[in-house]
Specification:
mainly alpha; single chain; 89% helix; 66 residues
Amino acid sequence: MTVDQQVKNSYFTIKQAEATMKQLTIKTDSSEEKHAFQTAEQLLKSVREDLQKQLVYLAKEETEYE
């Protein structure tokens, strides 16, 4: 598996986890839990955005990593 594929897999895993946090935020009635899920979702969003930037970089540098 190439670095590009590993980063893509990580990106989609994080994206899925982010969606799960959003669903849990909607389903819970506890304000503490809502806050915890929202905080986790924001952190995952930041990681996803960083991975997206890395994917753009890897696409430009593709030949180095194959």
